[in-house]
């Protein structure tokens, strides 16, 4: 057992099929009266359902959330929030919508209630990101942590199967890196292993039947655990690479995580053997199958992309991606070696199964 210092973030979490019905109660628990509802254009229908559930407590709908929170959108949403006299916001959607809520909270301290409909896990973290002039700036601030989170698996039934699988593996990535984090602790490691196991069970079930509420519940439960790990301990090489590839080369978030994770695990395997054993156990990897291979198989067998070249990456950009990822030092179990990381990117580009 390593020495550790654990500080667990405090939030209310309400979980269960149909849990959205508790929304008014959660608003009252915050001492708030009027909620601005946030969503993407694609989820306007779900936001309207929320607004009608709230009746006169609804201060309006802002439906322009997009990936990576552009500064202009954040400014517009902040103005709408001010003008609507809302004293809280309800963010219904994935990481993009939660991220917009965080951008408002960062500016005004407006309390956020998150209703996650993907498995990205942003609702459990004090990490925010805002993109200005093509550069995504991220930071940590306790004010942006949603005060209350309603996990209702019914709402994730409409998440397309492809995005469900990649979003689930995005969640697994938080837990996997949490297991070898420089500030890992035993509670977060328990949550990480349980979260990976829940998603490992759930994703094939969702692939078979996207409406399967048991599988949807398992996946959202796993997302909660994995998101908590992301919020409470530091991440390493995998998250740095994905941030670089997503931010500088505009690759889709969940897909990038899905493609890169097996290769990042293979890179760290010999430096974090205990973490690898726990991932293998959680994914019920057959004898002789490594953690990296088990994650690769989970993606491939459930129809997810496994190669960067298939999700918009250009071979000519791999050197630059490697340079950007190495620009600032950060903790990682295995020291950052340029040649090995360049080889990792090449393998991820081509989609080879790690050996
Ligand atoms: N700050 C953090 O801690 C943190 C953590 C994870 C992700 N993120 C950020 O979140 C963003 C990615 O989030 P994401 O992967 O959840 O994707 P997303 O929020 O962009 O959602 C992807 C698409 O799926 C749609 N969608 C979501 N749920 C749906 C549902 N149930 N039914 C139908 N459609 C649905 C959305 O409307 C959107 O069109 C990135 O910008 C990433 O950086 C931040």
Task: Describe it.
The protein has two domains: 12-156, Rossmann fold; 161-350, Up-down Bundle (Dehydroquinate synthase-like, alpha domain). Helix content is 50%, strand content 11%. The two termini are 29 Å apart. A hairpin with a 2-residue loop joins strand 6 (127-132) and strand 7. By secondary structure, the chain is α/β, with parallel strands linked by helices. The mean pLDDT is 97. Residues 40, 42-43, 67-68, 93-97, 99, 117-118, 120-122, 125, 127-129, 155-156, 158-159, 163, 167, 230, 253-254 line the site of nicotinamide-adenine-dinucleotide (NAD). Nicotinamide-adenine-dinucleotide binds next to helix 4, strand 6, helix 5 and helix 9.
Radius of gyration: 19 Å
Strand order of the largest sheet: 1-8-5-4-2-3
Instruction: Tell me the CATH topology of the largest domain.
Output: Dehydroquinate synthase-like, alpha domain
What is the residue-averaged pLDDT?
A: 97
Q: What's the tally of helices?
A: 13
C-alpha geometry: globular
Cα distance spanning the termini: 29 Å
SSE series: EHEHEHEHEEEEHHHHHHHHH
Largest sheet: 6 strands, parallel
What is the number of domains?
2
CATH-level-4 superfamily name of the largest domain: Dehydroquinate synthase-like - alpha domain
CATH class of the largest domain: Mainly Alpha
Q: Which stretches are poorly predicted, pLDDT < 50 over at least 5 residues? A: none
Q: Which structural traits does this protein have?
A:
355 residues; alpha/beta; Rossmann fold; Dehydroquinate synthase-like, alpha domain; six-stranded parallel beta sheet; two-stranded antiparallel ribbon; 11% strand; globular; binds nicotinamide-adenine-dinucleotide
């Amino acid at each position: 057992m390593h020495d550790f210092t654990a500080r667990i973030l405090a939030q209310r979490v309400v979980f269960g099929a149909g849990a959205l019905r508790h929304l008014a109660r959660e608003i009252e628990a915050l001492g708030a009266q009027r909620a601005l509802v946030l969503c993407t254009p694609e989820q306007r229908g779900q936001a309207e359902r929320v607004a009608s559930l709230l009746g006169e407590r609804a201060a309006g709908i802002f439906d322009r959330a997009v990936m990576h929170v552009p500064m202009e959108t954040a400014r517009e949403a902040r103005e709408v929030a001010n003008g609507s006299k809302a004293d809280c916001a309800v963010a219904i959607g994935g990481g993009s919508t939660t991220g917009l809520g965080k951008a408002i909270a960062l500016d005004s301290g407006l309390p956020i209630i998150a209703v996650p409909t993907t498995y990205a896990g942003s609702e459990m973290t004090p990490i925010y990101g805002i993109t200005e002039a093509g550069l995504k700036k991220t930071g940590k601030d306790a004010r942006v942590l949603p005060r209350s989170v309603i996990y209702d698996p019914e709402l994730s039934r409409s998440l397309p199967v492809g995005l469900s699988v990649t979003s689930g593996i995005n969640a697994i990535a938080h837990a996997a890196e949490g297991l070898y984090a420089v500030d890992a602790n035993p509670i977060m490691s328990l949550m990480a292993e349980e979260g990976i196991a829940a998603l490992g069970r759930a994703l094939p079930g969702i692939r078979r039947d996207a409406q399967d509420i048991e599988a949807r519940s398992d996946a959202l439960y796993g997302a909660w655990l994995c998101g908590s790990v992301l919020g409470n301990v530091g991440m390493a090489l995998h998250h740095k690479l994905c941030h670089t590839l997503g931010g500088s080369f505009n690759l889709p978030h969940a897909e990038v995580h899905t493609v890169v994770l097996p290769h990042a695990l293979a890179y760290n395997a010999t430096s974090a053997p205990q973490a690898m054993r726990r991932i293998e156990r959680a994914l019920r990897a057959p004898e002789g199958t490594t953690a990296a291979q088990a994650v690769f198989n989970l993606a491939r067998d459930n129809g997810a992309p496994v190669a960067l070249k298939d999700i918009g990456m250009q071979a000519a950009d791999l050197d630059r991606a490697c340079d950007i990822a190495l620009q600032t030092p950060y903790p990682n179990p295995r020291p950052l070696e340029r040649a090995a990381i360049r080889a990792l990117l090449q393998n991820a580009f081509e989609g080879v199964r790690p050996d």
